[in-house]
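Thread: quick sanity check before group meeting

JM: Hey all, I'm pulling together slides for Thursday and realized we never actually wrote out the predicted structure for the chain we discussed last week. Dropping the sequence here so it's in one place. If anyone has concerns about the input, flag it before I start.
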Amino acid sequence: MAFSIEKIRADDYGSIAPQLNSVETADPFAYVDLIQEPENCTLHVARNEGRVVAYLHLYQQKYAIYRLAGDADGASMLLKNIGSGPAILMCQAHLMEAMKSAFPSAPSYMEYLMTVGREEENTSGSDSAVRLEPAYAEQLFNLYASGEFSSRTAFNSIDSYRALLESEPTFGILDDFKLVSAATAFSGSSSFGMVGGVFTSREHRGKGYGTSVASAATRHVLSVSDNSLLYVRTDNGNAISAYEKIGYRHRERWAFFDIGTGIVP
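JM (edit): ok, ran it. Output follows.
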């Protein structure tokens, strides 16, 4: 096939974003970022006979996040547009070998993209979770700093978590007034929203807290969107089981590569 590679101008994002739907993926985040935050985006596409068959999307704030999806040959050609510097590279599972060839020393892991719609959800376990006020920003920072999410706090601060609590509904479980579990409902569109940041402190696991906060966040997402999405590591069986109880099902596998950030899920 004869491919052409094109960098899309920012003032063309509105017209190009719907064309990304021709790339077979359930991941809609490139589309939403281009529409909602064009100032933070860069987009390259691979075309075949004028049709978009692959894309490389860059979302840049504190660090770079690349999303690569579509035809394997077109995607391989797009890899040369990945810049230097710390980044998280995300790609569909069938593109993992191309990514490994380009970044052989980068640590990687696999995640499922899971989805649930309004008619499939079971968020009955959400009642024990409470919506967190901005005053809980320090506790939220400390919760994430206490375990597997600790690498993420290097790129955040108590103030950034306060801003999160002010802008995105976040739900938690309190034990003796201490925050021990949390999850956030991220706004997206009328079609989808996302649940993220699901975490429970080690000493409070096995009590259903993660299911409760994920249920509360999912319920909020589905109050404004048709579908809720989340990512979970393929080797995290306990979390996968909890999400399946809520109604989530596997849609795709994605590979995540860390290029110098030190961030782990």
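AS: nice. The chain has two domains: 3-106, 116-252. The chain has a mean pLDDT of 93.
JM: adding both to the slides.
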